[in-house]
Amino acid sequence: MILELDFLLNFIGIAGVLIFYITLAKLSQRMGEGLRLPPYYRWYYVSCFITLLTIPLHIYLHQNYDLSLENDSLDLQGIYVFMLLLGNVIVILVSIKYWGWLKDEILVKNKG
């Protein structure tokens, strides 16, 4: 039962992250067009693809849970975590590029 709940929550979490990344991509695309920025928003879609690839990897790891002590499984778990981390790092860097100006706006309003 716990494994099924873990699998379900992981899938729902990744789906939520993908929806968030796509929303950020759409908002950044519109803002980037208005500010005439290069199309950095495409990196959000790259991050979506990388994150999407973790779903079949998680399914494989979930199905072979009893074999998790083998070296292959540990390597796959490392790849799984690396792909999630890489997707998040890409989103953070692109978000700083597009949305970094908000920090200055908030600080100016709080001072004045």
Detailed description of the structure:
The chain has about 110 residues and is mainly α. The protein has one domain. It has helices at about 1-35, 40-50, 55-65, 70-100, 100-110. Helix 1 runs antiparallel to helix 2, helix 2 packs antiparallel against helix 4 (about 70-100) and helix 3 packs antiparallel against helix 4. It is elongated.
Largest sheet: none
Could you tell me the strand content as a percent range? under 5%
What is the overall silhouette? elongated
> What share of residues is helical?
over 70%
Estimated structural class: mainly alpha
Our count of helices gives 5
Domain unit count: 1
Ends: how far apart?
Answer: 55 Å
Number of beta-strand segments? 0
Order of helices and strands: HHHHH
User: In terms of per-residue confidence, which ranges show pLDDT below 50 for 5 or more consecutive residues?
Assistant: none
